[in-house]
Amino acid sequence: MSKHLQAPEPSQQPKHPASPADFTAACAGLAAVLAADVESRELAGLAPHAEVELFRDAGILPALIPAERGGIGLGWRELLTAIRPILRVDASVGHALAYHYVNSWRINLNRNADSIAALEQETAARQLFWGGAGNPRDAGLTLMPDGRNFLVSGRKFFATGAEVADRITASGTRADTGEKLAIVIDGRGSGVSHPGDWDNIGQRLSASGSVIFDNAIVAPECVLGSNEQTGDPQSPRGSLSILLFQAVLCHLHVAIAEGALESAAEYTRTKTRPWATSGVDLATEDPYIRTTHGELVSQVRAADALTWRATERLIAAMETGWELSDDARGEAAIEIAAAKVSSTRAVLEATSKAFELTGARATARSAQFDRFWRNARTITLHDPVAYKAQEVGIYELTGVYPTPSAYS
Amino acid sequence: MSKHLQAPEPSQQPKHPASPADFTAACAGLAAVLAADVESRELAGLAPHAEVELFRDAGILPALIPAERGGIGLGWRELLTAIRPILRVDASVGHALAYHYVNSWRINLNRNADSIAALEQETAARQLFWGGAGNPRDAGLTLMPDGRNFLVSGRKFFATGAEVADRITASGTRADTGEKLAIVIDGRGSGVSHPGDWDNIGQRLSASGSVIFDNAIVAPECVLGSNEQTGDPQSPRGSLSILLFQAVLCHLHVAIAEGALESAAEYTRTKTRPWATSGVDLATEDPYIRTTHGELVSQVRAADALTWRATERLIAAMETGWELSDDARGEAAIEIAAAKVSSTRAVLEATSKAFELTGARATARSAQFDRFWRNARTITLHDPVAYKAQEVGIYELTGVYPTPSAYS
Amino acid sequence: MSKHLQAPEPSQQPKHPASPADFTAACAGLAAVLAADVESRELAGLAPHAEVELFRDAGILPALIPAERGGIGLGWRELLTAIRPILRVDASVGHALAYHYVNSWRINLNRNADSIAALEQETAARQLFWGGAGNPRDAGLTLMPDGRNFLVSGRKFFATGAEVADRITASGTRADTGEKLAIVIDGRGSGVSHPGDWDNIGQRLSASGSVIFDNAIVAPECVLGSNEQTGDPQSPRGSLSILLFQAVLCHLHVAIAEGALESAAEYTRTKTRPWATSGVDLATEDPYIRTTHGELVSQVRAADALTWRATERLIAAMETGWELSDDARGEAAIEIAAAKVSSTRAVLEATSKAFELTGARATARSAQFDRFWRNARTITLHDPVAYKAQEVGIYELTGVYPTPSAYS
Amino acid sequence: MSKHLQAPEPSQQPKHPASPADFTAACAGLAAVLAADVESRELAGLAPHAEVELFRDAGILPALIPAERGGIGLGWRELLTAIRPILRVDASVGHALAYHYVNSWRINLNRNADSIAALEQETAARQLFWGGAGNPRDAGLTLMPDGRNFLVSGRKFFATGAEVADRITASGTRADTGEKLAIVIDGRGSGVSHPGDWDNIGQRLSASGSVIFDNAIVAPECVLGSNEQTGDPQSPRGSLSILLFQAVLCHLHVAIAEGALESAAEYTRTKTRPWATSGVDLATEDPYIRTTHGELVSQVRAADALTWRATERLIAAMETGWELSDDARGEAAIEIAAAKVSSTRAVLEATSKAFELTGARATARSAQFDRFWRNARTITLHDPVAYKAQEVGIYELTGVYPTPSAYS
């Protein structure tokens, strides 16, 4: 690997979980650790350097990298199942973690096989953490040729994970030729800075602030090819990364809802007093608490079931390889869009109405019970849900799949 | 089989579909036939004698009966997938058809193996149609011993399918001992009459009126054993029929919603004029039509995904056999209850809001477009959805599964 | 009045209610009469000739006409209050009745004072019933000069009340000059025919089918002036009729919802059995029935309160006269649009969910309990509610009032 | 007045607004002042001492006190209209302010006329601020006779305004006789302390923490009589304070919703970028933003209209005096309960969905745009909305009004 990429020394010898079961157990353990102080960490809202070290030490970062390259060799199904408990208790750091997996995996959607192999091997060996800098609503990055390297410059907002990342995926436009290239940037290298401008109401630990590149060096090994979305119109596969981000968002939505309802149930069981005129001895026997809880859980289960069905369809598309058809991609895109609509509605309703189960005292700030809604409200605005519904509607009305783009 | 059971001569030699693929094709064909005049049949609202003959002639009635007993040998997964197109276009007759499968299969939840085998063989050989007479809110049926037979008397409302059935499942209480027994009654036999009192706003072709038994003969071969729900408290398996009915209702809910939205899309594409101030040339380009359609489809897809996940859990429970645990039954029960809540909400919203896609002219009675809502509104009242939500809530709050009962 | 206008002989001497209190009592009596057989009349769905005779005999038709012209001299506030009971029990005929008042009053928005006076006097003297033929989505009517008269030709759909009307308001375009004129047509005259094509799922007694004019004679006294919407751009007053129609629709929405909930409460009190696992002795003690009923009533009361506030604003605008400002009209238009959105949501939810209070047996067709939803679903499609919400949104976002048009 | 009551010296000569118009203008000015730094004050969440001084200096505190006692002499209608702008921009301090008016007015519901007169005169003269300590879910306060005074002891949670109050309304039980008495406590006196335990997610400036009384002196002039709710069962008037609190909560709900939507509109106009695939140049032209905004505004307007109608009914009840009937009180109670249900739904939906109008960047913490939802979510939990819906349902189903109690 290029000397320009400098990875941190691992704080200790990584202990790679050796199997899916090990990995699942490691994630459960991490979820418990994160749960212990999520309220105070969330309130402080610092960039999650400590949390990333926790993940690194646990050896979970190269989960998707094949065993022959030093990774754990999980598939997406096993991965998303195993990390769900983390997303439930701390969807904020969980966002950065889930995006790490997307960003470190999406390089596979490019055709530069040697670079991909080297990047994966290094990621596994050094337990590297990945972020992204791809917000399509900002101006693009510029790539200035400089000998065999490029120098990349520009600013990207909403660069989830970048502030704490060892490697950052991005794309940039060559100043000389106008060609758009997919690149990987050393997050620890010179010319990369973070204004620390992420202080939002939710997803506070997701490191989603902006990143500034000022002539940061991009070695040729870190140029993965023409941009996956725009550069390879023959290939529906190239744009699967967008669908993967959307699917991961659905998992985050559902996980936040599940976390809120689990917390609410625990609170109701242990702290909520029955209402004076309810005629029951325990809050858990209140008819309205029971039914409202049941309705919310039912909607969340439905969103979860659809999220998984969409995920299965996406996995099938990802496994199809380069011969993936437009229609197969389109079917996955529609199912994911529907899951986005359904999970958005479910998580917003669950995280807001959950307070009607717990009662007024759960509004104490110390409970941080509002973090579920704040997380939900923030992450569901990633891109407007009305346009996801529109995509589904257009397909059902006319049979036309969404054009692959920055959000579809 | 007893001479007391008289099956009609098949109108023609049954042509059993020989494979799941054949069966699926046969159902698709039947859906097309039913679609052709569903509006006029639905308006007339006659008992579906003709429709049952259609099913009989197509040879689809013994779908679940093992091949070695003369049936097609499908599993529930294949069956429910294959009949979905029928449920979409005509959920009213589809209700009777789906219940036929439940009623002819549920005898397997009893322990009288010889009778079960004989009943299945006869059903396959003669393409028998099954109904049920089990409404738990009515007074129970009485069984009067009469030599080796029983004479059954009483009235049951909401006996879906019974009016057009060759065999009717029921349970009754022995007048002499008070024992409750599961029985099968010859629907064509003496002492069985149908007041023809089903004239409801929806599910008009489901033959869901009442049935009266006046000393109808029940031969000993048609006594299947102690009542499945109450008679065998050691056995969670015995009460799986209730969950199966509930799961089938979820499939009906989803199918009605799908049918409504497909019809609405077709209408919008071909007949709806764009609104004057919409600024678009086609109704399918109207932003509100697009997004509303997409939202409705998304909710229905979510309900469908959960319905299938619940169905898979139930199938696993059914396949477990007599050693099924309370917890495994309970998990299935909760998932099905959640699917009921989700699919109820989805189908009511879809069938009512669909008119906002098609516009005012779709209220012409000739379009019968309201039949989707009328069907949905009728079938979703089978048992109160609030109590299904309550079951989910109780489980989430306290970990307690629903007690097996007439609706849970 | 012109000999071309032929009114029916009143079946008996009209007994004009002499006061608002008399009028209110007369309407209450009519509501009771209509309630007695609304189910069977609604099922038959005939044009409401008999109902109009009932209104005529009761002397309620000239309610808004000043006493000095032979009318009762009510204002809109008193009228809408008094007829609400009629709209609750039979919103279908109530639709035609309410539109009668709009159509017979809207002539006041024209400047031809002598014709207006004569038409009002005749309406009072002969208890005339008014309909309209103004559906803006159809091609316009043509006016062919014929001596001092015009001959009007063309077809209008959704001409509520026209089939049973003595007088029909309309507008047409002069074939020679292209001028658009507001006219009144003798509904009993030659050249006016009704295809009887109103057979819709709801509002079946509203006589909302199409009307065909084939050289029907329009005497000069029945030309009221340039078309109110388009002809007098200096005058916001001219287009108040559109707002009045919209406000009346809101009253109909609320009334349907009230009727459905009153019927549901009566049914629940007298017929619904408590659910088996509810633990209560009466359905009215079921916690979910109580709360759901309360939620529906609350939403309907809110829609009603807004409907009345909007109506008050409109009445103020109507009373302002010709100096009405664009802004004052605009404020009324926005409040009415908001009431339309609110009342649409409320009535659809109330009429569909009301079944969850009454239970499954209320789906018996004999109860005709679905007529509330069918009426609601039909009338709320008068024009797309999404565009009413859009009008409110545009105003709130930009301060721009809706442009006076056929629906705004 | 007793020497035990020590009021602060007014920081400056109160400038009583001399008329309703002056008062309205003063409130508008205060709203502008509060709006300037509401975000930072809300974040800090300190007890609103400074804000109360602002109100005191503006002379608005004795708004409801008759002019002959030195007050401004407004009625509730004028007052609630005038303070609405304050509630919109800062519902958190607005909560304490609105409760000041309730607490300083509710003494009129007692029969001790001389004490009431004296307390009102002092309130006007010294611009006193009032809080309350009446949370019915806590243990009651104890009154120990001590010569001619009582010594009051106990703790009350959710004592909105008490921490910054000069006078605190409460009730306590005599240790010797068990009689329950309505009292007024000097908030600045000895024996009154505030743990400062209000650090909740919303309504952070409402001073809603607990208050501890440790032998605080209550002079005989500050004993107003038997407790208004329980002491005078003959008098529906005595319990009107509860309805007044509930009505004021409705106004707060609506005001929060209005504030959120106004802020969202401003943000959308000035900052939101149109979505990439929207095809429009301005966010305010986006069809989904327009319609969603319009739907939210419509629901809020409906809740507002019902809130006002309920308020009018309550004002009529308050003006009736001691002869108020149970039915008249009951009618007001039901309308207020319906307004609570409607306004709760409206404000929760508006404050959460408003983010879908503004887009992702509005989640920046600096915008504090989430404070609307946090305020809404906190205040709407005052008492469970399901039980308010239940009250409405019981009345509609059975005609029974709510029993006057701590929340009804």
From TrEMBL, chains A, B, C, D:
Disordered: annotated span: 1-20
Occurrences of domain Acyl-CoA dehydrogenase C-terminal (ranges): 249-383
Keyword Oxidoreductase applies: yes
Keywords: Oxidoreductase
Keyword presence, Hydrolase: no
InterPro entries attached to this UniProt entry: Acyl-CoA_DH_C, Acyl-CoA_Oxase/DH_mid-dom_sf, AcylCo_DH-like_C, AcylCoA_DH/ox_N_sf, AcylCoA_DH/oxidase_NM_dom_sf
Protein name, entry field: Acyl-CoA dehydrogenase family protein
